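Service request form, structural biology core

Requester: graduate student, group of Dr. S.
Request type: structure prediction, single chain
Budget code: on file
Notes: please return the result as structure tokens.

Sequence provided:
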Amino acid sequence: MNISQRVSMVRANNPGVMTLDGTNTWIVREGSGRSIVIDPGPLLDDHLDAVTAEAGEIGLILSTHRHYDHTESVKELSRRVKAPARAVDPQFCVGADPLSDGDQIDVDGLLLDVLLTPGHTTDSTSLWLSAENALFSGDTILGRGTTVVAYPDGALAPYLDSLAKIRQLIDENAVEQILPGHGPVIDDPARVVDYYIEHRYERLDQVRQAQAAGASSAREVVERVYADVDESLWPAAELSVQAQLEYLDKE
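Core staff response, request fulfilled:
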């Protein structure tokens, strides 16, 4: 799927409750230069075949965070195409250094700036394509619904800081489009990020109210706050509530 002259996307066939339509693998290149593959996705031969066909010569593989639906195929893709791989977490690096906040990546004139956006996971990273005022958000912001901040790898305070950082970029007209790890492209980022921030604070208020009503554990909070949510999602909600409780304990 072509998004622009620089950006295309191959979606993995791994749909699910947490992955929506599947993992978005992003391919970025400048002109006829080598490509950068962002989030190579699950280890599915058909998916990797489609990615390599779309990407052509690959100069670098990047991962936005450690979850397997984004990283499972990193080492196999690196082996196939003989390209280095980088991520914040060293275990997903191959022949290259880990990513750090403020790094600028240059592959044959294609520039990406690294913006650490922890919260969904401790290693969550966004990548800013300044040439198109676009941000690859990984799972920090999804194309549909809201993301999970699951204790203990997820933490709410840094997540709120990350959302504020992205909102500032939007205010500065540096981000006009968000390219998420799952779901459709976001063309109205201000509205979506504002909703994310509002949603998090509303959930915190609901958790406070549940505690005031006698809920003393994450499970008891989930039973009150997420009563309208399918119970198959309650385990994930419980981890999210645990992160909210940790945040409230530090207020």
